[in-house]
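Hello,

I think I submitted the magnesium ion job twice by accident. Can you confirm which output corresponds to this input? Input:
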Amino acid sequence: PKTIKQLLEPGSSSAAALTSITGHVRSIRRQKRCTFALIEDGSTSKGLQAVFKHGVRGEGTSTAMVEKLRQLTFGAGVIVSGRLVESTGPGQDVELVVEGLDGVEVVGRCDPDTYPLQPHHSGASSSSSGKHSAEYLREHLHLRLRTPGIQHTMRLRAKVKEALEGYLTGEQEFVYVHTPVITGIDAEGGGESFRVGKGEEGEEFFGRPAHLTVSSQLHLEAFQAALGRVYTLAPCFRAERSMTGRHLAEFWMLECEWGGESPSCDLHGLCTFVEDMLRYTIARFLHSGLSVSPPDADNELHRAAFSQKPWPRITYIEAIHILQQAQPLFTYPPTLGHSLQSEHEKYLAEVHFKSPVFVMDYPRGVKPFYMRVNPRTDMETVACFDLLVPRVGELVGGSVREERYGVLRSSMVDAGLIPSPPETEIIDSSSPHSPKKPLNPYEWYLDLRRHGSVPHGGFGMGFERLILWLGVGIANIRESVGMPRWKGWMGM
Ligand code: 4AD
Ligand code: MG
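Support: Only one job matched these inputs. Its output is below.
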């Protein structure tokens, strides 16, 4: 048996041959002599119309046939056999004509009264479209996957992942590495990590405190020191307490880390790499047939992908000056030394530059400990960037990493991650028979600098944020992933 997609490929089957498909009924229209059902098997976004010629009901149709017609409801799982013929109706080139009802087998019934996705179900919004609201569908995540919007997003995710990985593993020769999900550290120091563990002593993992990773970066740096150019695409977990449309508690992050020249790992080199990678990815997306956005949004993405001018790069201080000129617009006044608020980020990309924009060199105090400290000017800053894009705000964050042992150590002491007197014994020499000595979970990261540190840098991009940007019509990040995890989740 072929998928609908394979069946619809030109020259895939002769008109006379009997073919069969397995799928779900996506819509149904009943007429006197015929029933039309749109069958979908997930291989295409359109499905295939099946036409059942059953004769006038009540006039010569058997009870068996009447029963089968009754079972043929929206959502039912079916195997349909028929012949592919040119369609006379609008909307499709071919349809599957089924003679009698022998060609239909209802393999999985779907009760119209209880199926939550029925168009007339009480969860449908009162609008005439009969569509279910996003909130309603989030209560039925397992079935939501069968709706066309989410199906499209799943295809988009798969295509975008393929494009990004193709870019990285192609000429750039990055190596995909698998970083751990369970860690002893809170990589971003934001206090947003979820603890893991089992047992009465509290949340511990084999006798040591453990967290779900908030970012793979620190481990990725250890892989970088061994393999040169590495990336990972991995789930990250953050106990985000706010219910914004841009934050999830579980999200996927693409993280890259490399050292040396071409691609250069200085601050401008990092920005150039990210811009090239995203231009490539957007172009692939625009040519994939998955772009269904309104033309103006398409133009915005089109410009981002193909404009001759590089995306603007400004410093944090320049950003604050621009924002202060527009101050009456904001709830939070832009203040030197403070982080940018999401309203500020959106203003810069969407209103001021109307383009993706890199903001570089943030104050040391608002960024994590691992970023390389810039030579001192008026303000102490770090060699980092955030990429801000229209409609989404922050899409990527990255930095040159602090490779100097002494500077890194004092940043870590300032952040309260390690005690100030150097620890003399850092090797965990415990055997299974002796009690474990306490081991500072951040010492291994310092070790990377003790033993042959080289300059390197990297970035992390929220995969769902990228889907929000490319997927244009997706209003909330909870619709950018199949099974979102966020504060309001239903526990499934
Ligand atoms: O800016 P962040 O926190 O940076 C890091 O974690 C670095 N360690 C990355 C690195 O340099 N390797 O997160 C990076 C990106 C953000 O720009 C955003 O796109 C996304 O991850 N992100 C989230 N996406 C969805 N939900 C959340 N709660 C997110 N938090 C961050
Ligand atoms: Mg960030």
